[in-house]
Fold this protein.
Amino acid sequence: MLEKPVNIKKIKSIFLVLILAAILPITSCTQQSIEDIAITVEQVDAHIKLLSSDSLKGRGSFSEDIRMAEDYIAEQFKEAGLNTFEQFPNYRHEFTDIHRNRRNPDAPVKEYRLANIVGYIDGSDPELREEFVVFGAHHDHIGVFGDTEDNIYNGAEDNASGTTAVITLAEYYARKRDNRRSIMFITFAAEEVGMIGSRRFVKDLPVEKEQIKAVINFEMIGKPSDEGRAVCYLTGWDRSDMPTIMQEALGDDPLLLNQGPEITNGLFFASDNISFAREGMVAHTLAGIQSTADSLAHHPDDEYETLNIKTMTTLIRGTVRASRTLISGERTPTVLKPVK
């Protein structure tokens, strides 16, 4: 029986299809990074919408309503599959604090039960897994205050936005599982009343402080620059070489990281990073460029509708790239200017 003649044109067509099938995924990954695909606007939007909603009553530092926010964060950590430290079961670092209401000097001193929410992901490297990069943000705000029609201080920008970043990064790294160093995720209680949660956390560290190689704390990341770009700064730019390491890791990136205005030198001492820095750890706050002059800060109108969710998403994605060499263990930042 005679064999059918080989159809050269058909073979070439099949070969071309196979080549395109192999090339297209690579091309699409170069045009859109893994972080862009894995961290979505919809994901960020869902977290920030819930955390800044009226149902949480402004997440007052000493209120019962703060428990709803803490339960939500802990549930997201659990669903992501984060590990818990033995000292902090159910992702809760619980402690008590004796406090008097600063708004009312005649108020009695009371004992409050507070909680930081903590989880971690093991590193993949047998040695580097003993070292930690920390992502943190405070989850409290002012709560309900005054007798005006809108007396809920939702704290969407301050600091449901930072809390959203921590949750989103926990979900991202828990899915990816390629971190060589271990990663710790913390949301702090009672920052608004004197950074009580972070100060207590550094006293009760679940690991030795020498194991913590870098702390990135988030504050007010929900608004773009005047030009519409996702721009942020690190407080205390000259305190360590971590800003330089992160800037180098970013390269040509949609996220612009800069030193910020002169006021940011003082803001190094105004958020939860300082609790770690005072103990000799490399710790900075990453903040949105509008955070130093936000007219809605500590105002009832700091609500979800004032935020730019795309800007937040771009900043969170950029943080992944900026911290890449910290998490891989390629770079280890050092303190340049210790806190006295």
User: Anything to note?
Assistant: The chain has eleven helices and ten strands. The longest strand covers residues 110-121. The two ends are 93 Å apart (CA to CA). Residues 40-328 form a domain with the Aminopeptidase fold (CATH 3.40.630.10).
